[in-house]
Amino acid sequence: MAAMTAEERQREIVRAARRAGSVDVTALATELGVAKETVRRDLRTLEDHGLVRRTHGGAYPVESAGFETTLAFRTTSQVPEKRRIAAAAAELLGDAETVFVDEGFTPQLIAEALPRDRQLTVVTASLATAGALAEADNTSVLLLGGRVRPGTLATVDHWTTKMLAGFVIDLAFIGANGISREHGLTTPDPAVSEVKAQAIRASRRTVFAGVHTKFGAVSFCRFADVSSLEAIVTSTLLPSSEAHRYSLQGPQVIRA
Questions:
Q1: Phi (first) and psi of residue 118, to 5 degrees
Q2: Which DSSP symbol is given to 92?
Q3: What is the pLDDT of residue 50?
Q4: CB neighbour class for 250 (10 Å; exposed up to 12, middle 13-18, buried from 19)
Q5: What are the tens digits of pLDDT across the range 182-232?
Q6: Residues contacting 222, CB < 8 A, separation 6+
Q7: Is residue 112 exposed (0-12), middle (13-18) or buried (19+ Cβ within 10 Å)?
Q8: 148-162, pLDDT tens digit by residue?
Q9: Among residues 9, 59, 75, 93, which one has the fewest Cβ atoms lying within 10 Å of its Cβ?
């Protein structure tokens, strides 16, 4: 069998990363029958093209216009880190009485960590979050109408944004597929981007919560600048030096 070209090899690496959630240099070298250095070179090229982010000994896929992980996958990935982040984010509630909770698994965990001993109104586009809170004590849930995206089980399009435009919300907990100092907060789908942007416009305070692997990643649609955030909540897996660089743009950075 003829050896793969670099392009074929790189396509295969991206496919493997998207299928499994991450790839390992040693395993790829064995699988593809090439030297580890060749795999590392391929990963550098793919990172330059914005398709993967390299880690020590491997890489994971960057979410893009052509690829997005499902909610089902997110509920099994980096769960202990997401739980720590959610608990720390929920502590930023302050005196907020109305809260927007974004789609995604980390925002859902934040919603579940919110106090039940006081009246709260939670506005969300996420069917999973609405379901999780539907019977919570002292919590009124307002589910935004619209087209439901199958992978994330969240509503989008003009019905969703029109409803949001009619509110003044105390605090928004926002997620993103990527956050970078240069490009701000990004997500692959323009319809999702619109909902997030409208939620931020409708809210007095905005908190971004996300795992360390989101930092430096850039997706297709930009919906907010880092400077528009009151706080960023992530984990100690984000180096303190990097956290400091984000804080210079305005938000408080909390590493849980």
A1: -150, 160
A2: G
A3: 80
A4: middle
A5: 999 999 999 999 999 999 999 999 999 999 989 998 888 999 999 999 999
A6: 183, 184, 185, 186, 193
A7: middle
A8: 999 889 999 999 999
A9: 75
CA angle 102/105/111 to nearest 5° reads 60
Which amino acid type is present at position 45?
T
Q: What is the pLDDT of residue 61?
A: 84
Instruction: Please calculate the CA angle 189-200-253 and round it to the nearest 5 degrees.
Output: 100
User: Based on the number of CB atoms within 10 Å of its own CB, is 238 exposed (0-12), middle (13-18) or buried (19 or more)?
Assistant: buried
Q: Identify the pLDDT of residue 130.
A: 97
* pLDDT for 77 beyond 90: no
Q: Which residues of 141-179 are buried (b: 16+ CB within 10 A; e: fewer)?
A: bebbebeebeebbbbbbeebbebbeebebbbbbbbbbbb
DSSP letters along 152-192, please?
TTEEESHHHHHHHHT--EEEEEE--SEEETTTEEEES-HHH
Pair of tokens at residue 125: 């586009």
Q: What is the pLDDT of residue 76?
A: 62
Taking residue 72's Cβ as centre, other Cβ atoms within 10 Å add up to: 11
With a pLDDT cut of 70, the percent of the chain lying above it is: 94
- For tokens 């400091």, the residue is 244
Both tokens of residue 187? 């997500």
Q: Helix or strand or coil: residue 231? A: strand
Question: CA 52, CA 18: separation in Å to the nearest integer?
Answer: 9
Write down the residue that tokens 């019905």 correspond to. Answer: 159
Q: Quick one: tokens of 41?
A: 């070179």
Output the CA–CA distances (angstroms, integers) from residue 121 to 5, 40, 130, 143, 164, in the order listed: 56, 49, 11, 11, 14
